[in-house]
Amino acid sequence: MTPLPKRKHSHGRTRRRRAHDHLTVVNLVECPSCHAMRLPHTVCSACGSYRGKVVLAAQS
After folding, report:
1. What is the mean pLDDT of residues 35-45?
2. Which pTM was predicted?
3. 27: closest CA among 37, 39, 35?
4. With contact defined as beta carbons under 8 Å apart, do 32 and 19 qualify?
5. What's the mean pLDDT when you consider all of the chain?
6. 3-class SS string, the chain
7. Residue 10, pLDDT above cutoff 80
8. What's the confidence (pLDDT) of residue 36?
């Protein structure tokens, strides 16, 4: 036989464990060159710029 729990976990213990099980809000910043919303510290998918320089060709 496989191991089984000896006692039932209480509602409080279950809810305490699940207190951190939630979605987090995505932090978006505005691109300074094209003003599109993007993730911080990433290349802008709209214009291809990063830290004031174009690093990717813009998709057309």
Report:
1. 94
2. 0.60
3. 39
4. no
5. 92
6. CCCCCCCCCCHHHHHHHHHHCCCCCCCCEECCCCCCEECCCCCCCCCCEECCEECCCCCC
7. yes
8. 95
